[in-house]
Amino acid sequence: MAIVTTFSGKTPDQSRSWSRHAARYDEVFLNPYGPGVQNPLWKALDAIEAPETKTVADLGCGTGPLINRLLERFGRVVALDFAPGMLQRARGRVAEADRDRVMFLERTMEDLEDLSGPLDVAVAVNSLVMPDVQRIHRVLTAIHRALRPGGVFLGIAPSMDAIQYHTMLLYDQALERGLAPSEAERFAAIHGEHNCYDFAFGRFRYQGLRQKFWLPFEFQHRFGKAGFRSVTLDKVLYPWDENFAGATELAAEPPSWDWFFHAEA
User: Fold this and answer.
1) CA triplet 150, 152, 157: central angle to 5 degrees?
2) Which residue has the higher pLDDT, 15 or 170?
């Protein structure tokens, strides 16, 4: 999930936009590795057998918050991102003693054909977010081809239904304060930042960044079209904190979420 603004206008240069946000990435976007977050990714990575003999790719690695966790378990890490500013920060996270086990690649997620050997595991955390679903299909197909038969694709994708859930809670909150239904709708739309989202197609925009949010039924459909099998979902659960409007009043409600996916090639 992310903080966003109105979706419209022509597409900017996304690599420049992401590079511009590299320094403030952790301030702008929800952190799936943060305190209090229940993240199924850790259990899924722990379940991979003999990881020290395997190669894992961090696809859309961003500023590199996952790289050192992968280096603790896997023999070799491929860290890929199309934004040079993001890669620069990611390189700075890796200790000199570990750098010979990391291959940094400045490229898009479609461009995987020349990797030296197939991948055992691919991970995409909040990077499978291209607003063009045709490009998402090309990316998923490229990842499927890059994985060994039986290889595993793990990741996190922002949830559109979580935005709708938050909207429901804000709406009820306003009604309980005595607002009329029309006023409660306006309250929920403003504080839920509805002007930021294109709900019909699951897209949003923030300071030049364009991304896609996912609904659960899309994973089986889109991953299946790219050749993946055994696609399963779980939730990354976020505590109600300052990232959410009305968080204090919502503390007793079930938490918000992003989608965690597990797929096999």
Assistant:
1) 145
2) 170
